[in-house]
């Protein structure tokens, strides 16, 4: 286990290597942050967002939490989304889960884990909604499918938010994608659940454009 001073030494070495490879790398970072992508992913340390998609710092705006949740009362997540959409004007939001997610596993258990159980409760609702479809699968396949279904649900959750819908109402190009990452081989898979406009949203979740915005 590296000590704290070793982490700082590693940081110096990383910065030195970056400057050797690209002398103006940090100069560009200081001058501008202009990513086209927002990544909403799991806090799991085995899922490093930038590295998975081969991007440098500054190219990917990132929010992470336990089990990559998008909850309408999570103001941390919503503040990130609002800034990314209205200020950075990202074009793509990637909601990325991963197989073997500990948060999904905990949600499927009956034992208590602490306050995180309240955070993970919506995943139990996902299981209940799809139980008839996955109950006959082997346990490992059930777990994998739940990791996928959790991502799909979060894509829809985000599309139901007024921040996203106001951007669409103003003609902003913005798509929400659902991906699943495999820690076993390092490959991310598109779950084919992209939403890029109001047509894919049930009427009950649709907000009228803000009258004050003039739309």
Task: Count every beta strand, where a strand is a DSSP E run of 2 or more residues.
Answer: 5
In whole angstroms, the N-to-C terminal distance is: 55 Å
Strand order in space, largest sheet: 2-1-3-4-5
Q: What name goes with the CATH superfamily of the largest domain?
A: Carbonic anhydrase
CATH class bucket of the largest domain: Alpha Beta
Average pLDDT, rounded to a whole number, is: 94
SS element count, helices: 8
Strand content: 5-15%
Number of domains: 2
Alpha-beta content class: alpha/beta
Order of helices and strands: HHEHEHEHHHHEE
Gyration radius, to the nearest Å?
Answer: 19 Å
Q: What form results from the Cα inertia axes?
A: globular
CATH architecture descriptor of the largest domain: 3-Layer(aba) Sandwich
At the third CATH level, what is the topology name of the largest domain?
Answer: Beta-carbonic Anhydrase, Chain A
Q: How is the main sheet built? A: 5 strands, mixed
Any low-confidence stretches, pLDDT <50, length ≥5? none
Helix content: 40-55%
Report on this structure.
With 215 residues, this protein is an alpha/beta fold. 45% of the residues lie in helices and 13% in strands. It has helices at residues 4-21, 25-31, 49-52, 75-87, 102-107, 116-134, 139-159, 162-169; strands at 37-42, 61-65, 92-98, 175-181, 188-190. A five-stranded mixed β-sheet has the order 2-1-3-4-5. Helix 6 (116-134) crosses helix 7. The model has no long low-confidence stretch (mean pLDDT 94).
